[in-house]
Design brief:
The chain is α+β, with helices and mostly antiparallel strands and 214 residues long. It is built from 6 helices and 7 strands, in the order αββββαββαααβα. Keywords: Coiled coil, Membrane, Transmembrane, Transmembrane helix.
Length: 214
């Protein structure tokens, strides 16, 4: 390739690079112009999300799990009842007993709302008064830890005696449990109807709108 050809090729390359760089600068300039609008949209979206959460919180029916109270305590042994970890049948009273702490919170809530009458239940309550549900991460970790401790104790049964090992395992498990409640429920307070909740939410939104205009 001759000197003239080299210069021509480099000149063409220079022009192409210059053109591409100019186009990119134009695009960056347009993005800079759009940045304030993008930030404003992000602010409005955040405010809208907050408003949605506030309205949903106001219109959400109160949780029945926070109102669960046992009216007639029952001392029947859960382990002697037939069934699974969510519901077992009590042969003494011929009723199903529902383990609220063995269900996810949503499932336990739905059960209480759809029951139509007080149920026989079993559940654990934390020291702060809240009900321990099956999907609680703290409760799940404690159950896994208890199982590990119980398994370790039972593994030593050959050395210390099977009965003593089992007694120690049961004592360890009970020591870590929250307070247990079992028996017939007190009927929860009547829940507000859906249209009442919607009306309250609409009234609140109207008041908020008037304050914004002022």
């Amino acid at each position: 390739m001759s000197y003239r050809d080299d210069v021509q090729a480099l000149t063409m390359r220079h022009a192409a690079l210059e053109q591409e760089l100019s186009a990119l600068r134009d695009r960056v300039a347009k993005l800079d112009e759009l940045r304030p609008r993008m930030q404003e949209l992000e602010r409005q979206l955040s405010a809208c999300t907050r408003d949605i959460n506030e309205v949903q919180a106001r219109t959400r029916p109160p949780s029945l799990l926070s109102q669960v109270r046992v009216a007639s305590p029952c001392g029947e042994d859960w382990e002697l009842m037939t069934g699974d970890e969510r519901v077992r049948h009590c042969g003494r009273c011929d009723k199903d007993v529902y383990n609220l702490s063995g269900m996810p919170a949503d499932a336990a809530e739905a059960l209480l709302r759809e029951a139509g009458e007080p149920l026989c239940v079993r559940f654990y309550r934390r020291a702060d008064g809240t009900l321990l549900s099956g999907d609680c991460s703290v409760g799940a970790r404690k159950r896994r830890r208890r199982k590990g401790v119980v398994a370790a104790i039972l593994a030593g049964a050959a050395a210390v005696g099977a009965i003593a090992a089992v007694d120690a395992a049961v004592s360890m498990e009970r020591a870590e449990e929250h307070e247990l409640f079992q028996g017939g429920l007190v009927a929860p307070p009547e829940l507000p109807q859906r249209h009442e909740l919607d009306h309250d939410a609409e009234r609140t939104r109207g008041a908020d709108g008037r304050r914004d205009r002022e």
